[in-house]
């Protein structure tokens, strides 16, 4: 039986799936893990976790179906995450994660001053924010010179797995386009002048597209993982884009909403749209461009409330549904880890407004769900103002298993959401890309994963949520000065902390 294996390294877990040639899921496996937060604004992970969990998952999936013939392997991972390794592929320090890590503020400001906003956006498409990889590389060079002196190669989770499996040193175009300002988005290549200025010691990874074959499994990797030597491995890409593939939301006019620990949005088009509020990137496939955005917290916020109130998710969801639209006069800003788009403010912080002694945990949970929905609306309206042609919206991720969250997002945004049969996410998309790369007759994602549910907004709530959205936008402006002062105080904290894992099925 011909099968493909897909593995995705996420923020709170690594997930794997074994799929038959028709897309049927034969087995799944998950390994929960933590990120490290050694200081306020720092979010890191030991890259050894990525490979160890991949190998463990691969062995488990193969053992579940010993008759499976692994025809190809798909890889995916969170990003843009910056992992620098030495000439022997030993990491010089833990990987610095994507936009939730906000340490490189000084580097963002200095590189922007050095190059100018116009030149940065002309070359890379986006202004520099906490999502950009280039300033994080510069931070290592300036703040950790011993690590920088040993650094020779640049990886992200997917490319690290491809390297460990095949020996190939390759990065996909989509991931590379988020190593701003080092990638030339119009010419789809590394930008030599900026690379020489900010990453001169690093050997440039070869560039490929997400579904291109990076190489084949080596004998050494086969011994560790159980995957037969010679099995093709695709290049892979960042998880949000692989998730979009997994639900067929990667065509021109599509918008993918990824419900997870964080919330991610990817709108696909053919034109390179530039706006300071969002991220302009290369697409997962040739000829496409993306306007992307992301909330720094979504499932992480609801998980925090569940832990804080010592309640299980079914209880909280039932109580939140009973609370009703508007959460009985509560309004939350979901910026508990700063915020990415569209406000691009690493010093934003969470705000709960309107609290009284009569409010319950159900009201709080409802307000948290509405906060993420308001954040989605803020992003969608910003995308459309920048020229994005959004014709179709598809939901994916662990949070889609909670119907209330989906309904709240549709009610707040006024958008219809399509939900496919399988929302397991990026690991499934990676398996699909692997199948396309190696099958005699490449499958279609509509055959693998058809739409089975549609969430339509409740028009009766439109006025309520229009008012709430206006207050949401005004609340940020009204509290920003005080919140920024508090964030400055918090930056003095040095205690090491971790973020607890949240299984995808509970991020709702």
UniProtKB/TrEMBL annotation:
Gene3D superfamilies: 3.30.420.40
Residues of the Carbohydrate kinase FGGY C-terminal domain: 256-437
Taxonomic superkingdom: Bacteria
Ranges of residues in domain Carbohydrate kinase FGGY N-terminal: 4-241
InterPro entries associated with the record: ATPase_NBD (IPR043129), Carb_kinase_FGGY (IPR000577), Carb_kinase_FGGY_CS (IPR018483), FGGY_C (IPR018485), FGGY_Carb_Kinase (IPR050406), FGGY_N (IPR018484)
Entry keyword set: Carbohydrate metabolism, Kinase, Transferase, Xylose metabolism
PROSITE patterns linked to this entry: FGGY_KINASES_2
Family recorded in the similarity comment: Belongs to the FGGY kinase family.
Protein name: Sugar kinase
Species in which this protein is naturally found: Microbacterium galbinum
Lineage: Bacteria, Bacillati, Actinomycetota, Actinomycetes, Micrococcales
């Amino acid at each position: 039986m011909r099968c493909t294996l897909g593995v995705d390294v996420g923020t709170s877990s690594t997930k794997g799936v074994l799929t038959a040639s028709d897309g049927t899921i034969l087995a799944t496996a998950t390994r929960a893990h933590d990120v490290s937060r050694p200081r306020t604004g720092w979010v890191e992970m030991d890259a050894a976790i990525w490979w160890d969990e991949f190998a463990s998952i691969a062995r488990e999936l193969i053992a579940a179906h010993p008759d499976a013939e692994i025809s190809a392997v798909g890889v995916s991972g969170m990003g843009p995450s910056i992992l620098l390794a030495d000439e022997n592929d030993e990491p010089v320090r833990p990987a610095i994660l994507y936009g939730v890590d906000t340490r490189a503020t000084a580097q963002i400001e200095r590189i922007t001053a050095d190059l100018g906003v116009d030149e940065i956006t002309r070359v890379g498409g986006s202004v520099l924010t906490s999502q950009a990889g280039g300033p994080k590389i510069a931070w290592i060079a300036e703040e950790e010179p011993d690590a920088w002196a040993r650094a020779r190669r640049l990886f992200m989770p997917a490319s690290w797995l491809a390297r460990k499996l095949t020996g190939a040193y390759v990065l996909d175009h989509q991931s590379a386009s988020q190593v701003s300002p080092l990638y030339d988005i119009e010419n789809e290549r590394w930008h030599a002048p900026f690379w020489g200025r900010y990453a001169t010691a690093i050997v440039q990874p070869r560039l490929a597209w997400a579904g291109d074959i990076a190489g084949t499994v080596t004998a050494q990797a086969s011994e560790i993982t159980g995957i037969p030597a010679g099995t093709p491995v695709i290049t892979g890409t960042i998880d949000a884009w692989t998730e979009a593939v997994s639900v067929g939301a990667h065509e021109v006019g599509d918008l993918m909403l990824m419900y997870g620990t964080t919330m991610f949005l990817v709108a696909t088009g053919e034109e390179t749209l530039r706006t300071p509020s969002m991220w302009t990137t290369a697409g997962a496939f040739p000829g496409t461009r993306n306007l992307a955005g992301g909330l720094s917290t979504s499932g992480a916020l609801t998980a925090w409330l569940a832990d804080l109130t010592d309640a299980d998710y079914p209880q909280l969801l039932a109580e939140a549904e009973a609370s009703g639209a508007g959460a009985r006069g509560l309004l939350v800003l979901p910026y508990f880890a700063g915020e990415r788009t569209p406000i691009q403010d690493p010093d934003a912080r969470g705000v709960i407004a309107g609290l009284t002694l009569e409010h319950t945990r159900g009201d709080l949970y409802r307000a948290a769900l509405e906060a993420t929905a308001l954040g989605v609306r803020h992003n969608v309206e910003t995308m459309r103002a920048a020229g994005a042609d959004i014709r179709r919206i598809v939901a994916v991720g662990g949070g889609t298993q909670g119907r209330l969250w989906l309904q709240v997002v549709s009610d707040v945004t006024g958008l219809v959401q399509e939900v496919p049969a399988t929302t397991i996410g990026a690991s499934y998309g990676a398996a699909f890309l692997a199948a396309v790369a190696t099958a005699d007759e490449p499958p279609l994602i509509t055959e693998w994963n058809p739409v089975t549910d549609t969430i339509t907004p409740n028009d009766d709530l439109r006025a309520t949520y229009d008012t709430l959205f206006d207050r949401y936008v005004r609340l940020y402006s009204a509290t920003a000065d005080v919140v920024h002062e508090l964030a400055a105080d918090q930056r003095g904290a040095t205690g090491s902390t971790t973020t607890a894992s949240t299984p995808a099925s509970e991020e709702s």
